[in-house]
Amino acid sequence: MVCNSLQKYYNETMIAKTTHINDTKNLVGSLPAVRYTEPQYLYIAMANARCPNAELFIKEGDHVNSCQVIGMRHAAFFDQPIHATCSGTFVGLEKHYHRNGKLTDFIKIENDFKDTLDPSVKQRTPEEIAALTKDDMTEIIKNCALVGLGGSSFPTYIKFQTNKPIDIILINGIECEPYITADHRLMLEFPRRVIDGIKYAMQAFKCNKAKICIKSKYKDIKQVYEQVLKEYENSGIEICCVKNYYPQGWEVAMIKEATGIQLKPGELPSNRGIMNFNVSTMVGLYKAIKYNMPVIKRFITITGDGIKNPMNFRVRVGTSVRDLLSQYCGGYINPDKDKVFIIGGPMMGNSVPSDDIIITKTVTSIIILDKEDYVEQPCVRCGSCVLSCPVHLEPVQIMNAVKSLDKERIKMLNPLRCIECGLCAYSCTSKIHVTDYIRRAKVFAKL
After folding, report:
1. Are strands 311-316 and 297-303 parallel, antiparallel or unpaired?
2. Which fold has domain 126-291?
């Protein structure tokens, strides 16, 4: 009886906290994205979270073409080309905030507004595309530096290197985090690009079945794709409506809902004949295979209670968020009030101290909130963090083990299973940043 009462209280609390967020999300998602593809300056990150080192192939004053390789990032087991996202002149390096939350060197290019394409960009004929093997496509997307555009930034070509037979491809269009609707707009505005990208993936893996996973409440997307798929007779592609909860977009939850298959902790989907991609990545795949073009534009959401006009944009990679805020979003509602800037979703994104943010290819959204000071209270052992945990951990026990520096207990509680969804902190009635304690526990668990 106590457990049922606690669950009811938890459910009612979550509904109250998310009503305003959902209203904002629905409004922004229903409006067409604003095109802003010709800023005066574009900024391209040198290094990133997966590639800590980079080298530059150009010098100040050099002219560059759009999609030209201008440098190379280096990681432990792969290299990643750096592409210019407009044509113009290389001005120099400047530091701005990257999506990883750190100040990073960015390549500054002054746009000449001619959008001169690099000679490497070329349209392939349907016959040329039909003749491509998986190895051919792997090399193409490697050279185009395609990565997971849902925010993971994992190199897509590495997924293509699997030798496991793939029975079904799942496309993640769930976009389950609060506020964000960038993928929603992409799916509505470019359905054929999404479907063609899926067809290329199916060709590569010799797979005859694919599901586009969306939340059941997205009736508009379902209607559009059911109509457009009529143009692709016997494609093997279908819409799969999943449940309306967070974190339904987590790949384990999506796979379970779409296929009935429950992955074991740490198990790769390919071991079960499954390959999954974000819907934006499929559009990136389409551009790479069809035009040999890297990702130079993307959809993003800029929203939150701190700005006047939340909206979706389609922008060039390298666009300054400050430009978007001043020119389109109407600035801040309360300019004198401190703000919280979150790159990515409000649950799993990174916070930065200012709006000096650059859009990289894996930035899905910028959330800007009026800062509110919360006083952390002692844990009352209400159990809301346990009830909310999608991987069935005991966050409060992990927190206590971290506070007491009990390394053995930390390892026993298995914090490495945490997906850092943020629900434990979001649901905490005492305003404790529980997720931060679990991040610290992961460090101890790896020692």
Report:
1. antiparallel
2. Rossmann fold (3.40.50)
